[in-house]
Amino acid sequence: MSRRVAEFDWARTPLGPSAQWPQNLRSALSLCLGSRFPILLFWGSEFRMLYNDAYVPFLGQAKHPEALGSPADICWREIWGRIGPMLEGVTRSGEATWSDDEQFFFERALPREEVYVTFTYGPIFSEDERRVDGIFVPCTETTEKIVSARRLDTLRQLGARSGETRELDDACRRIAAALSENRFDVSFAALYRAEAEPGGEGEPRFSLLASMGLEAAALEPSAWPLASVQASGQPLVLELPEEGAVLPGGAWPEPSTLARVVPLRWSGDGRVDGAVVLGVSPRRPLDAAYLSFQELVAGNIETAIANALAYQQERRRAEALIELDRGKTAFFSNISHEFRTPLTLLLGPLEEACANPQVPEGVRAQLGIAHGNSRRLLRLVNALLDFAQIEAGRLRASFRPTDLAALTRDIASPFRSMIERAGLRLAVVCEALGEPVHVDAELWEKVLSNLLSNAFKFTLQGAIEVRLRREGRHAVCEVADTGIGVAADALPRLFERFYRVAGNAGRSMEGTGIGLALARELVGLHGGTIEAASEVGRGTTFTIRLPFGTAHLPAESLAAEPARPARPLVEEALPWLPSGGGAAAPGRAEPGGDRRFASTFGARIVVADDNADMRDYLLALLGGAYRVEAVDDGLRALAAAHREPPDLVLTDVMMPNLDGFALREALRAEAATREVPVIMLSARAGEQARIEAIDAGVDDYLVKPFSARELLARIGAVLERDAELRERRAVQERLRRRTAQIETLLDVAPIGVLLIDADGRFVEVNPAARRALGLRRDLLGRDFREVTRLIWRRAYADEIIGIFQRTLETGERFFTPERVETRLDTGRTEFYEWQVDRIGLPDGRHGLVCYFRDVSAQVQARQRMQHADRQKDEFLAMLAHELRNPLAPVRHCVELLAASPDDARVPGRVTPILMRQTGILGRLVEDLLEVSRITRGLVTLRREPVRLDSIVEQAVEAARPLFEARGHALTVHGDPALTVLGDPTRLVQCVLNLLNNAAKYTEPGGAIRIESVRREARAVIGVTDNGRGIPAELLPHVFNLFVQGERTPDRREGGLGIGLSIVAELVARHGGSVAADSAGPGLGARFEIALPLHAAEPGAVSGDAPVPALDDANALDDAPHAPHSRRVLVVDDNQDAANALAALLETDGHQVTVAYSAPEALALAESLRPDAVLLDIGLPGMDGHEVARRMRASPRLRRAQLIAVTGYGQASDRENSMSAGFDAHLVKPVAVPLLQRMLRQAGARR
């Protein structure tokens, strides 16, 4: 590079000729070119590049040597977006920067090659150190380090995930999962297995084992050259299509362009067993390191699959051995069943015959021999089964702490009479061991019985000794005899199965050679050892050593119940005596059943056994006392049970179609037979077989062969116990139902119920009580006093505790219908009705039951009703006051007119007063009616676009006389651009009410301001005054019905407190809202109405409120009209009202006739033919609507104007009037100018 730099024409660059380069550039370049470390220089504002030989690999063949002297943004255009800001930052700040293992994507071997670089940007300052002339960049490529670490982690994951798998499918899934975690180096993967064609001919087939990152179409084996790779045994690199069905690029957005198929050999014989397809990263070149990584991936895959296949093969071998063992166990079980069933049929009848005194003595002796040999055969069968269970690991011992000395003496004692009859002596010396030994009593008995039987068999004279002593942490038991002894060469084989010492002259040559072998196995189960020492002609000694404690025993066998011992060996050894003495004759069963269980006689028993002889035997044995039905398999037994449920089922275990265990499950599945007891007969002996039967739900278990007496006793006991259980279940069911009923009553009870015992603890708390107490923790068992003090304050809690304690001591009931309680935990005040009673408890002591219910809602409702009643009284008092105020001057004026009929001045003085006060009365009544209409939803809004300034202007004009009378200074500011959608009349009414309210509560001479402004998407009308203000406690309620400020003696304007309520209701119906604000008493108040703005079309906005309807009782027409005489009929049942109205109309020049009833009105109308009829609606007998309909039906009255004059002013009243034929509907009191105008129209109509 030194030569290239020297030969480069720098004059064509901004750096200029090298001879003119500054010293700092010369020094930096000298350091760069002389270094063996990759160094790059950026110089000047364009960051022109100079570099040494070690930096060339960074550029690659595509950029070197053209990169020399070129601007950095051109040479490194693919990464300029990242390094450009870094370079400019160093140039501006003069501070160095560095990066470790920074990832870049170079345009080098690939369009976007993944590269990692560690570098430093060091500034090179000018000679005056005021600026940065260049940047010195030492750098190192760390790509290999980063990528190798990533690939190594993938290999480690492959080994960790697939190394412990035992299934091929699982191994393949784990392989795919491990590869999927490195999509940077494995874009995709597919694992295939070669399947050889039958006969080994033809091209092999491949099956997919696992895949990662590929679509289904790309997973077909035909998509890859698998056969070629298998044939050659070499990897194959594939160039993938760049168009069409592109394959994924893994972690990168661009597709992969290369894939590699690697052969796999996992069988160990060198042949190709499969292949893996590995996608190559589109951003890393497929170099030697990449190829090595793929080979290592393939090697890990081979190891994982080989391990999984080896494990599967080993497992198949183990399963085959297990299956063989199962077959052997099944064989022994079947043999057991086949032997035990005929043995049962032999021993049962033989026992009965030997016990029968009617059988001749000689015959009984022969039967005794048969009975003894049958018992011997049973002993051989049991020994074989014990060996089978030990080999299968199914022999389960029950180890319990046992006094081994006492047990050993008990086992040896039955042998004494037999040994002494043979002329021998039995010595039993058992020392106290000081602590119990954990043994299975039944198995220990088998060990000792075998040893004693063996000693008796080979001892012809002398003695047999049983010795037990303690040696350290072992119990030592010895069985010694003075018999014929065993040769030294035979001793090592003495405990082998089926081994018999040749030539020994014992009492008998009988034997199978398994007794001592069985003894050794059983001692081994106890964690002990057995040894033999013998000398020919001197005798033999067997020594057993059993450890103390339980550490040597399986924990699961320490809690089992001990087995019941059986002692068949003494009876088997008795025939070896010279006299041939047999066993004592067995006892005989009671004919027909065991009389101890006579209460069970007559019960129905279903017998299931596939052996016909066994069925006949059981029928004969049980038929005398019970109703017996015998069937030959489980299915027929189930059908018999369904047909008539039995009291007991006696079943064999092994039967065709449905065995005994399946029969028990089938009986359990049906409600009618679920509780039927089952006794199971089985050839399987031992504790484990019995436990399995009990676990299956069997009530009793008998091992064949069994005695008739035992069977009858078992059947009677089970039936008697079942009868007791049924009675107990019936009682429990009655108790359960009663308990459930009580619990249901408590659960759904709307009152709380607490049951407290004599110690003051909660015994029962029903859901209503839990909800009322509100405690999350379970109350049962908690102290009542503690809980009480958690809920209520100390003094009140102590009072409640005292009440409960007095009731518990005296038995006196406590009841309170209403008690106020303030909760300590919630702060709420609650009202409860509660009662406490003393009750007796099952333990003989007394407890308390408390019934209570929350009456807070009722109390609060009563309080609200009382408050409403007070409000009603206050309203009525206020209404009376407001009505009396105008009535007083009216009465005074009337009295003045009556007292001065001739005084011409009086009418002029009283007429304004009467007009004013009757107007006040009319407004009071109209306000009450308006509230009623609004609250009942009877107000209909006639919405139209209207300008808000027009609403304000009309309201101000209507209120101006009141302001002028009180001397208020009124300021008006209206925004003409505000338009809302509403009923103009109602909006004027709302604003007018606010203005009247301001005037009412502002002292004379005060200031009132009304304005309309825009506030976001709403138009706001505000009325502000400097009057009395509003107290803070009243402010939230000012828009409620009947709420008023404080009345003062100088506030002459009355009111019912309903004006603001009307405003709130009407504004809400317009979609708006109201608000009130005041700084306090004496500081004035501000009321606001906010309405949604409306975007109206030009010219569509109404500027004025609509003209009141002609029949509106409040519409005034003050224009003077010349009187025109009309014939008028006034109809009203109120004579004063009729006469007054008639007198008023007569003063106006009309001819008036009065009628006080409907019939009179109809008659007068026909004769008078009036121009107008003023007709009251509420007439007695026949209302005004019916009178109007009849008048309209008369030809003489069709053109008469019918005017309803009534106190009913609802919209429905007006509609009813119009439908009845009225021309107008006027509400009392009638406005005289409006009535005059209507009468003029009546004349024109005529």
From TrEMBL:
Q: Where is the Histidine kinase domain?
A: 334-550, 878-1095
Location in the cell reads: Cell inner membrane
* Residue stretches making up the PAS domain: 738-778
Q: Does Cytoplasm appear among the keywords?
A: no
CDD domains with a match to the protein in the record: HATPase, HATPase_EvgS-ArcB-TorS-like, HisKA, PAS, REC_2_DhkD-like
| Topology of the protein relative to the lipid bilayer | Multi-pass membrane protein
NCBIfam families per record = sensory_box
Q: What is this protein called?
A: histidine kinase
Taxonomic source organism: Burkholderia gladioli (strain BSR3)
